[in-house]
Amino acid sequence: MNTEATSTAVPSGDTAGTPGGDRLRLTEIFLSVQGEARHVGWPTVFVRLTGCPLRCTYCDTAYAFHGGAWWDIDAILAEVARHGVRHVCVTGGEPLAQKRVLGLLARLCDAGYEVSLETSGALDIAGVDPRVSRVVDLKTPASAEMHRNRLENLPLLTAHDQLKFVICDRADYEWARGMLAEHRLAGRCEVLFSPGMGLVAPGELAEWILADRLPVRFQLQLHKVLWGDAPGR
Predict the structure, then answer these.
(1) Where is the Radical SAM core domain (predicted)?
(2) Any binding-site annotation on 173?
(3) Is 216 annotated among the ligand-binding residues?
């Protein structure tokens, strides 16, 4: 199989196809190194869906808000298989904004892939196939989208999932620490604290975590360390 590390970009604004049947609107499919969460470091195919109802201040994928093209789910599966790796990450935008993504996730699992879903946590995660590792981003105050957090998702999280906080300043950290205690999050799933790039120094966040002995995993976005903000990497 072809394993070249190149992006299969979907032309911006392409309106080929219609939103009926087993179709999803995609921005790109590409092979890269997983930069976050439990599968960090693994060669991974990323399926980036188009569209997101949120507008976080620190968003680094605003190019996925619009455009894209309609893909048949069969074509998505064929493109994923072409890259020849075991791990697949479905991301966005906000993938759960397209309801047919649930069928794609199930079919990827049926095909034997190790599947993760990156979601804002603003939409219901209950319908996601239990074989999928759900990486839920709980929005902090500095995101300007904290009011969109769907707290009903928290009791649904299991040890198979991860909950991510992007920390932009000390106020974000204090809020996240409070949520950790109030909802006993570390007992539900793995909790990740990630510094907002250019907003808080990684070493400073690490020192806060150590000082408070928080039961969380500090993480950097490995793909940004390697390639910066280049799309499709």
Answers:
(1) 39-229
(2) no
(3) no
